[in-house]
Amino acid sequence: MRRVARIVLAVFTLAIAASSRGQSPAPTAAAVGGAKPNQTAVPVSESQRAAVADLFVALRLPQEVQTMPESMIDGEIARNPSLAPFRDLMVTWLKKYMTWPALEPQLTQLYASNFTEAELKSMAAFYRSPAGQKAVQKMPEMMQRTAMLGAQLSQPHSDELKKQISARAEELQKKQQGDARKEAGAAAGPSPRATAPPKKP
User: Is pLDDT at 170 greater than 50 in this prediction?
Assistant: First the structure.
């Protein structure tokens, strides 16, 4: 059961990570990730929409989205080999829901809300240059290696985090118990005071 839970968590994490990569496939698009998912949609003009579409072509983003599940799953399996027997299931699941037709309208809104039309055109021009095309080509590998380096750096210190989480959980439990006792006392009402017997005349 625990193994299944780990698999589900890994796939969920991959879905989030893959979606984040789709929103900011290159360093210059880092500001996109700061957009709030529930923020009011800003009207997008036809010229803005065209500029965003041109940038997506320069970034080869539609093709990247198609291959993203494999690269993300393979990166996760490299860090956690026990997931290898489930590779086909995870890849199929990601490909079923993380498609370009599903992502494109939201990404268009996201980019148009965070970049001016002039910025979008400048970015497209860069990514069509030789240096830009190399950045597009190398970015998936660089992102995967960055994630693996982060895991390697943090893994030896996992016990520290576990201790902190355990201490915080204990604090929260004590607080909940204290709050429960207060609520129980308030519901019972004030305790009756012992009255002294009347004095004899």
Answer: yes
